[in-house]
UniProtKB/TrEMBL annotation:
Xref: PROSITE patterns: MACRO (PS51154)
Protein name (record): Protein-ADP-ribose hydrolase
Pfam families per UniProt: Macro
Keywords: Hydrolase
Keyword Signal recorded: no
Annotated NCBIfam families: PRK04143.1
Molecular function per GO: hydrolase activity
Organism expressing this protein natively: Youxingia wuxianensis
Amino acid sequence: MERLQQLLQLNSWLLADMPQYQWQARQFATDEQSQWQLFRSLVNVREPRPVRDDFIKLQDAFLQHKIAEKGITNICDLIPMKERLYLWQGDITTLQVGAIVNAANRGMTGCYCPLHGCIDNAIHTFAGVQLRLECAAMMKEQGYPEPTGQAKITKAYNLPCDYILHTVGPIVAHRPTENDCELLANCYQSCLELADKNKIKTIAFCCISTGEFHFPNEMAACIAVETVRSYLVLHKDMSVVFNVFKDEDFKIYNQLFSKMDL
């Protein structure tokens, strides 16, 4: 089945499940790019509920091809900046490591804003609708919103990594307080400990709490590097990738690495 036909079929199933969006869907053209935007929008707003097996099969085939098209990067192909520490600028949904870290919100079921540019939206979109279902079941069992600074693990589904670690970073309005800094450090520490518990040896961190959560980029990077370095001193079999997307963050981390004495 051609890519466009796959998208048309997937969107048809989604709209049958969510008929309230039928009139908005008519505003999208029938070319592949427009239908991909419609697909992303629909899965972004879809509540976590069961989906038909043939949808999953077709969705998985489409997403895996889409990710392969973007190009998969294996940690083995990266050159460490320092021993067991890597800096990589790129799309974290294409990174092949033991686990990637998702900067989640307290609901833990992904971003519901159509086509939003946050990492939570991208990870849930490319992992597939199964990820939202697993997160929802996990949160239903927990019975309360996810506290800041902790971490949870899920399958990665269609992503090239093995697992996803989800953590909620602090949201800051002005200059971060001492408690904000401690909570951000806890995010990194919790993810590292959870990875170690699950025998995950390679982990890629995004820039937790920057962007939408407004933590200053340079301060966040310093906390991230210091927390990870301290952990790796006692865990010699783990490697960490600091994944950045923006040029600003790449420059910040590159400068931090250049000052390290390892």
